[in-house]
Amino acid sequence: MKKIKVGLIGAGFMGRTHSNAYKSVNNIFGDEVVPELTAVADINADNAKALAERYGFQRWTTEWKEIVADPEIELVDITTPNASHCPIAMEAARHGKHVYCEKPLAMTAAEAVEANRVVEEAGVVSSVGFNYVRNPIQQYVRELIASGELGEAVNFRGMYDQDYYNDPEQKHEWRMFKSASASGALGDLASHTLSLSQYLVGDIAEVCGMTKIVVPERPDPKDPSKLLPVENDDVVQFLFNFRNGACGAIFSNRLAAGRKMSLGYEIQMTNGCIVYNQENQNQVQIYRHDDDKRERGFKTVLIAPGHGEYERFFGGAGICLGYADQKTIEVYHTLKCIVENRPCEIDFRFGMKVMQVIDAVLESAETRQWVAIR
Ligand code: SOE
């Protein structure tokens, strides 16, 4: 059993989600990896103190630099807003810490390339919070595609729609400032769809996209009588070609009335089709052209033993997992890679590739041209 001392930076919604995963990982995976919640930092002292008390961190601070320099801490976990992800990650790596960072990895592709270089140079393990890839059904889908049973991938059509910002009266948030978030729906939502396309089908070679701001101003949370500018995309859509010859399109809208968690894809293969949506995350629809002509149709496959780490949770099919379980699996993989001193599959290089596509989409939206991922 190897204990890993964890320093968490950011005590908001994702800090709580990660903390819950640390508290759950041993209940599910036994003592293969044992996180020790050592310290938590947040610029808001009340948040840091409350999270430390709620989840049992040994100490708390308002200074993230104390965490990255703490000789005891082995893993630095970053759940702050986007603009601080890479500066903190690089400082942690330079102190020899392993780093686990929420998505999107960076503000720009250049920043992601630099962060990945620093992390690889430091020889530390890195992990990025693309938790939807960690749904055991996605391991099954990737194995099914890799098996060739459905032929070759032809087209990946993906989306990630939410209606979280559907009300124009919804107040302004940090995600709507370029200085804090860079892109809008593209980096916040479509980055997850890109993580699935990259994980299931492969790397993207070129893109052609557009972005749109639907609600240009929103009430200032500090003074609703004032309006603040929305500086990044409410809607983004882009076409792309994979390096392996397949093609695709991704659509994302953060004002999509009625869509709460509509992250999904339809992967058209030469000999079949796979359809998934996160709002029904414990099932996937499979079509096999080889089925008997009298019976050809989509089959609903429920999450089951044999799908990734599902059996670590339940022995029977269809008992269902949730968002929190995906995060627990993500934490398990992060800690296991540290214990076994090997690269994590969803690491900074994986996150860097997603950022390179994001920057290319933004460039394409400006130039109205196809843009290659260099
Ligand atoms: C946006 O509303 C958001 O919180 C994303 O930032 C998360 O990455 C996603 O998992 C849920 O939706």
How would you characterize this protein structure?
By secondary structure, this protein is an alpha/beta fold. It folds into two domains: 2-132, Rossmann fold (3-Layer(aba) Sandwich), CATH 3.40.50.720; 133-321 and 352-367, Dihydrodipicolinate Reductase, domain 2 (2-Layer Sandwich), CATH 3.30.360.10. The chain is built from eleven helices and 17 strands. The chain has helices at residues 13-29, 45-55, 64-69, 85-94, 109-122, 136-147, 178-181, 185-200, 310-313, 323-339, 348-367; strands at 2-9, 33-41, 59-61, 75-78, 98-101, 126-128, 153-161, 204-212, 217-220, 223-229, 235-242, 247-253, 262-269, 272-277, 283-288, 299-302, 371-372. The strands form three sheets. The chain has a nine-stranded mixed sheet. Strand 9 and strand 10 (223-229) form a beta hairpin. Helix 1 packs across helix 10 and helix 8 packs across helix 11. The radius of gyration is 21 Å and the shape is globular. The model has no long low-confidence stretch (mean pLDDT 98).
CATH superfamily of the largest domain: Dihydrodipicolinate Reductase, domain 2
Number of helices: 11
- The CATH architecture assignment of the largest domain turns out to be 2-Layer Sandwich
Number of strands: 17
User: Helices and strands: which structural class?
Assistant: alpha/beta
Mean pLDDT: 98
Q: Can you tell me the CATH class of the largest domain? A: Alpha Beta
Oligomer state of the chains in this structure: single chain
Poorly predicted segments: none
> Helix coverage percent of residues?
25-40%
Q: Write down the secondary-structure element order.
A: EHEHEHEHEHEHEHHEEEEEEEEEHHHE
Gross morphology is globular
The Rg value, from CA coordinates, equals: 21 Å
Largest sheet: 9 strands, mixed
Bound molecules: alpha-L-sorbopyranose
